[in-house]
Every structure is written in C-alpha cells, then in structure tokens.
Amino acid sequence: xxxxxxxxxxxxxxxxxxxxxxxxxxxxxxxxxxxxxxxxxxxxxxxxxxxxxxxxxxxxxxxxxxxxxxxxxxxxxxxxxxxxxxxxxxxxxxxxxxxxxxxxxxxxxxxxxxxxxxxxxxxxxxxxxxxxxxxxxxxxxxxxxxxxxxxxxxxxxxxxxxxxxxxxxxxxxxxxxxxxxxxxxxxxxxxxxxxxxxxxxxxxxxxxxxxxxxxxxxxxxxxxxxxxxxxxxxxxxxxxxxxxxxxxxxxxx
Length: 253
Fold this sequence. Notes:
- 45% of the residues lie in helices and 21% in strands.
- The protein has 253 residues and is α+β, with helices and mostly antiparallel strands.
- The chain is globular and about 80 Å long.
C-alpha cells in the first residue's frame, strides 16, 4: 500500500481550515483507492507516495474532477474489490506533486465516513457508488467524562512515546468534538487493522470512545513497560561502565 506509515508524517492542520474543507459535498460516485491495512479517519491528513500506475491514473482523474476519492481498507492481501471493507472514508487530495520518475507524492485529508454501495468500474481503477454516513452523538455527562479521560490518556501516551511530537497532545486537547477526538487518537496509536476498522465503523461516539479507551490503555501499558525496561537496561549499563572505570583507576595506582 502506498501510504507512508511513519507516524511522524501525520499532519496536524489548522482546525478552522480543516473543518471548512470537511464541509465539501461528497459525490455519489468516487474513484476508490484500496488501502491494504491502512485506515484513514475523517479529519486526518496522511501522505501518499507511489509509482503504481493504477493509483497514479486514479489520482490524475480525481484531480481533473473534484479532487475527492474513496479510501477503503482491505480484509486481506487479495485482489479488490471483493476484499474491501464496506465502510471507508472520503478523502480530499489536498496536495499533489509529480516527480520526474513518474511517481507522485500527495496529501490526503479524510472528509467523512462513507459506505460502499456498488462497484461501477474496475479498470483502469476502481470506481463505486457511495453514501455518506453520519456519526451519532448524544451529549451526556458520561460522554464528557469519557472524552476528558481519553484526552488525559493520550497526553500520557504522547509524553512516553518517542515518535509522537508534543504538538499532538495539544491538538487533542483542542479537538472540536468528541468524535473528532476519538478519530484523531485512533489515527495516532498502534491499532491492528481489525481494531482500527472497528473504530471507523462505530458511529455511536460514546461507544467509539469506550472501545478506543480499552485500546489506548493497552498501548499505554506497553509503552510504560518499555520505558521501565529501557531504564533498567540503562541502569545496568551505567553500573557496568562505572565498574570498568573503577578497575582502570585501580590499575593506574
């Protein structure tokens, strides 16, 4: 899959500009990019780099029309469209650059959750009829508590994880809604393909945050254990180094 998997490459964008772009109307038929194990959430920007001709043709065609494509993860590494999940994301091609070798580099911004209704074209790339699906939000005290807890847990993850910039923690504290927060956090922690897809398909925001809280607690436990192991190893190395210098000093006496 042509997505760049480096977490550092995830882009945190000005929220007002990003929210304005997510209001773009989604066409009923879109070019479809099979994404392998990669899942794009609404409100998230990811880099794309590829030389694959089908993908290059797909991007070129979308740029010539409305710059919007559909992105769907795949159940297994088999030829699409049969293995595509039914829920994916519409994405805006926010930036695109063509390189001399024929490859492209682009930034894709998730716009909305969409459901795959019918494949309408298979060559030279996939196209399908889709429909936008809306999340369900009921503002309750429970949702507010879950939201604050998720923010705090993610802040802790950002503090410990060596590859997550501190700006992500600030961005999480300023998400415009609990659903946006859940999608943002899901995009920046380690989730298995099935887990990420489960979060994408959970339209009830309260349930989405509950599921995500379970996953982020697991991530935090792994990170904390890793930090503890690293500290113990460093302590042993420092001790061995001190003993070495002590022996060298004794030899010199």
